Amino acid sequence: MSSETTNLERSRANGLVIRSAVVASVGGLIFGFDTAVISGTTKALEVVFDLTPQSLGFTVASATIGTIVGALSGGGLADKYGRKKLLFAIGALFLLGSLGTALAPGSAYWLFLASRFLGGVGVGMASVCAPIYIAEIAPARQRGRLVGLVQFNIVLGILVAYASNAIIRAIAPHDTAWRWMLGIMAVPSIVFLLLLFTVPETPRWLMAQGRDNEAETISLKLCSSQEESDQELTEIRQQIKRDLEQSKTKVNFFSKRYRKVMLMAIAIAAFNQLSGINAILYYAPMVMQEAGAGENASYLMSIAVGFMNLVATMTALTVIDKLGRRTLMLVGSIGYLVSLGFLTFVMFRFEGNFTSGSSVLVLIGLLVFIAAHAFGQGSVIWVFISEIFPNKVRGAGQSVGSTTHWTFAAITSGVFPSMIAFLGGGWSFLIFFLCMCGQLLWVLKVMPETKGIPLEEMSKKLGVE
């Protein structure tokens, strides 16, 4: 075989890997879009469905409840039916959720809730399945940066949602703009479903199902050479054999042995949401308007928040393996306290007398807050949880961390409108500030550094095995 032919095959293989990773990561973009798009509709939803602050909180949190269900079931469904089939199901859930929320009449509040719940289930499944698919489809030399596409697209989706809301608000009729904001997600959902027809199932799942011939054919297309494909398939066979052997040994995840790492996963996931991040992402325009911004200005300010989220996330991803997880968490924790302390002061100082000037101060505080979150918790949480658990219980550990995260997300996003209505912005941000004092102490006293430690040696360092 000539060197020209070899280079051509390598180019084609890399092209399929990249295309497959990009397509899967589109699920992450829709995930991020769905997380933030509701922020532009809260005022309209209060009117259309006659919502109180409590029922508005439940309406917003209904998607997060669905996310918990999706996160809990996503791994098992991906193993049973395949990564690609589950990605199709996720796309369908995104589409149904988008159209259902956009078209639900004012007399069918139950339909709106059910549709939002279904979209949330899709988000939860996407948070599990998209990284798994990319990790299994990519050769080892490309795996890290390609899996990082999911996190990048989640943050990009949040920014796109804020920008989309602002544009639609400017051009759509006032009484139906909220429907267009929610319905526009149908477009990337359809594109996602169509693109899935162009990508393969993962070789690892196919081999786990005994479909070796298909796995070998796809692996050869994904790898740069026959030798690389053979090596990958050998590693897969060995891993499947180890998994089967381990499955015969009963492991009690809730034993004293794993208590330390389980509590670490619960702590970092709970602190992630006790910062108030999802509440702020869901209600960004409401927070701006509470601080004195006009409606149009509040939507433009939300775009600035989304852009800062994107920039800080990309910065963190470039240094997380150099500075370490604990260092990023320490910087992020200090940033939380500075920004939340500032926001608390501004809210108390201008309470009852908010102006356009005070809204600018709140925007500055929110930008620092978002930067602190994206650089610290936003970039560290899933990496840290995936590293601290031994291989035998890593799946269970991921589930505990994910379920804790989405449960606290449901709680904070559900109660935030009531907090603003009954306590005001000052007390609300003060509560988040106090929670982040707890996180700083946890980082300083408890959190270990996991940078550069092989997974096989992590258990020994943490005293688990």
Overall description:
The structure is a single chain. This protein has 465 residues and is mainly alpha-helical. The chain has helices spanning 3-37, 42-48, 53-81, 83-103, 109-137, 140-171, 177-183, 186-196, 203-208, 212-222, 226-247, 259-274, 277-290, 295-323, 325-350, 356-375, 377-388, 394-422, 424-445, 455-462. The longest helix is centred in the first third of the chain and has 35 residues, at 3-37. It is globular and about 70 Å long. The model is unreliable at 1-13 (pLDDT under 50).
Instruction: Tell me the fraction of residues in β-strands, as a range.
Output: under 5%
Q: Major sheet, described briefly?
A: none
Number of strands: 0
| Average of pLDDT | 85
Computed over alpha carbons, the radius of gyration is 23 Å
Sum up the overall morphology in one term.
globular
Helix content: over 70%
C-alpha end-to-end distance: 49 Å
The number of helical runs is 20
> What string, H for helix and E for strand, traces the elements in order?
HHHHHHHHHHHHHHHHHHHH
Structural class based on helices, strands and sheet pairing = mainly alpha
Low-confidence parts, pLDDT < 50 over ≥5 residues?
1-13
